[in-house]
Amino acid sequence: MTYSTPPPSSHSSSMRTTPTSRRQQMHSCDVCRRRKVRCDSVDEAPCSACTKAAVECRFTVGWRRQRRPQTRPGSRPQRFSQRFSSSSSLSLPSSPLAPSPRASLDETAATSTVANTTAATTAATASPAHTSVSCSCPHNHRSDSTDTHTSHTSLAVEPPESEVALSINIAENGLLRFFRDGLSSSSWGVFDMPDNVRVTYMGTHISNMTHLIKLDRPRPQYLVYPYPQIRPPLSPLSCQQAQRHMRTDELRTKAAAKSHDAAARNDNASSSAPSASAPSDSSNAYPDAVVRDINSFPEKEIRDDFINAYFEKVNPYFPVIDESDFRARYADPHNQPALVLLHSVLLVGAHVSSHAKAVHARHIVKAVLFRRAKCVFDMRHEHDRLHLVQAALLFTWHLQNGDTASSNSFYWLGVACRIAYGIGMHRDLMKDPLEPGRMPIQDRRLWRRIWWTLFQAEVLSALEHGRPSAIRREDFDQDPLCLEDFREVSGRINPNVQVAFCVRQTELCQIALDVMHLSAPGVARVLRGDDLRRRADELNARLVRWMLTLSSSGLGKTDSFGDIYLRLNYHTLVIHLYRLSLADLADFSADPASSDNARRVGSSASGDIVSCFETLHEKNMLAQCPCNAVTALTAAAIQIGKDVQCSLGVLGEAHGGPDSTASSTTTNTMLAVNGLCLLDRVCVAAEHLSVFWPNVEGVRKVFRSLYERFTTALDGIQM
User: Low complexity composition bias: which ranges (predicted)?
Assistant: First the structure.
């Protein structure tokens, strides 16, 4: 769409040449800025709106609007994304209440990330199997592609130093504003709208922030407070633009549906750019491509399917999103969900969706959706850092590569833990009074749900890799989950969320945290022999009580995904616990009977794990397995391999020996054959699971090679 500048009138010409007596309003008070109305304050005196409403008229330092650069008569205004060259970083749209800040260094890194994955996007959009998945649907709430009436020469008029000065100005005055206005305010939305509040965690009693607050307010003290924003707000995409983009997307979809296959491939390949029109200047295409990419979504039919799949198959067991609030925002074109959350939910929805487009090219579709979500994440597009915790948790449902330290679930869970600690999610905010100036109760409940979901995922990830958990028991004081914690913003308890599963899973992960504590290098150095066995026996008793309670409550007996997954994690933890017992017994040459008992327990658990995966495959539930399902299958395969290896070792020693008997040889032969059959079932289960988690294919290949080696060894012994 082309925008034109109206010719200057005689009146405007006189205004340019004749001095005017009208004052230049350069600074609005906080209330008028939020309401988006004109403020008539002069020299920061109380404005008429605040005086009439009998509220304090405060002025935020650092939000002064910059003078717009003069546009030459007859010049053609450029789109926002066309204002910068390809070497500049991504810009934010101009706002009538704030200057137009350009990207930070983090956003420049995000831009580089998008550039490196251009080939993946091309492959995703060129395939006829999923071309409509990558067709455009710009985000109609927050967008960086807002049209502006700034001339193409604005880059020279507004030097980058102004943006640096703005950021420094905000950083210099944020703490002062918090100390002056935030502590004394009785409103939770003192600095921003209640739905977009940025909070600060005061820390423990040794922190500087705690004692700084005591200087002004000795009593009472709270755990979290609202805090000023760290950068100007982003300007939303106008409703007219959103409707125009949606109409363009619908027309493009209908046109593609009517064309022939070859024509459709060509059309979709050319329309892979998310926006309706491409930039005219090739030198300016790169920043525009970034803006278009992060505001692109699958067509509505696929988008709805992904969101429904997420809330049907994932959120009931991984409740990091308030379903009622998300769906209400998704249906409202004027109040869309946070951009990073929308991309992240689509990512996980694509993982579990049975839509034909997702099934045909699941990993490519997920790679495109992950790239967009991560780009928005790296830009710190959202002020509410809770959204970053939620997005990082959802990122664990995507496998980027084979790196298990600086990417994938282990990395993103570490990021989520760090941000959660930073904003105080590990603290029990229910202790704070329910007052207008404190966090709303629905937000506190959401924080608790997300914290305990993060706790479960982090513990299971640390258990998989044998690495320290980022969450320690002594570092948080959150009470255990209860039914009221699952009451959403709508006021209702979400019937789709499996509350009993979440509570039992949390209890099991607390036991797992103690199991990992026994294997910590510092603990293993001082806790050995009888002390280690006593602690292991205590954990064994806790596991037994947990399973008995699970059975008595009716859980764990059905073939629902929640029950199967609980049994899966229980048997995985049993194997890890008895690994500690076997290591201790080997170190101290204990009674061989104890070693045999430990191996039998591990063997039984591994067989149950394989059965769980077979049931999940039969019921078409493997897509719902999170990343730690790979841990369970690998642990079972290792235990089965050890059993086969042990049986083959006994056969090798007994073969031709003076003490060998026909009965013992037959028994060990049958054990080896049974183990090989179970190992073959593991390989089949791994093949099925690799459809959703490709790294399981590596597990399958390893144990298929072991299966062949063990089979050859058994044939040699029998000859």
Answer: 10-23, 75-134, 265-285
Of residues 610 and 86, which shows the higher confidence score? 610
Tokens 């969706």 belong to 353
Phi and psi at 265, nearest 5°, equal: -65, -45
**Amino acid (1-letter code) at residue 286:** Y
CA-based radius of gyration for the chain: 30
* Cα 430 to Cα 222: distance, rounded to the nearest angstrom: 11
Alpha helix ranges (H) inside 424-496: 441-465
CA-to-CA distance for 374 and 397, rounded, in angstroms? 13
Q: Are 269 and 125 in contact (CB under 8 A)?
A: yes
Q: Is the pLDDT of residue 692 over 90?
A: yes
Are residues 63 and 174 in contact, defined by beta-carbon separation less than 8 angstroms?
Answer: no
Burial of 14 per CB tally in 10 Å (0-12, 13-18, 19+): exposed
- Tokens read off for 615: 């049931």
Hey, what amino acid is at 492? R
What pLDDT, on a 0 to 100 scale, did the predictor assign at position 26?
Answer: 52
**Which pLDDT score is estimated for 553?**
74
Are residues 470 and 389 in contact, defined by beta-carbon separation less than 8 angstroms? no
Query: How distant, in Å, are the alpha carbons of 185, 573, 600 from that of 579?
Result: 56, 10, 12
Distance separating alpha carbons of residues 715 and 382, to the nearest angstrom: 63
Supply the pLDDT for residue 588: 46
Identify the pLDDT of residue 79: 36
Least confident of 28-42, 162-176, 244-258, 545-559: 244-258
How confident is the prediction for the chain on average, in pLDDT? 75
Token couple for 452: 């305990």
pTM exceeds 0.85 for this model:
no
Cα 198 to Cα 216: distance, rounded to the nearest angstrom: 21
Confidence at residue 274, expressed as pLDDT on a 0 to 100 scale: 36
Q: In sequence order, which ranges of 117-260 are alpha helices (DSSP H)?
A: 118-126, 154-157, 160-177, 208-216, 239-258
Is 230 within 8 Å of 171 (Cβ atoms)?
A: yes
3-state secondary structure of 185: coil
Asked if residue 179 lies in contact with residue 106, where contact means CB atoms within 8 angstroms, the answer is no
Alpha-helical regions (H) of 557-628 = 561-588, 592-618
- Give the CA distances from residue 691 to residues 91, 351, 360, 622, in Å, rounded to whole numbers and listed in that order: 39, 10, 11, 9
Residue 348: Cβ-neighbour burial (10 angstroms; 0-12, 13-18, 19+): buried
In terms of C-beta density within 10 A (0-12 exposed, 13-18 middle, 19 or more buried), how is residue 350 classed?
buried
The pLDDT > 90 percentage for the chain reads 42
**Which ranges of 228-384 would DSSP assign to H, the alpha helix?**
239-258, 261-270, 285-294, 300-313, 323-331, 339-352, 356-360, 362-379
Distance CA 32, CA 58 (A): 10
Are 541 and 602 contacting, i.e. CB atoms less than 8 angstroms apart?
no
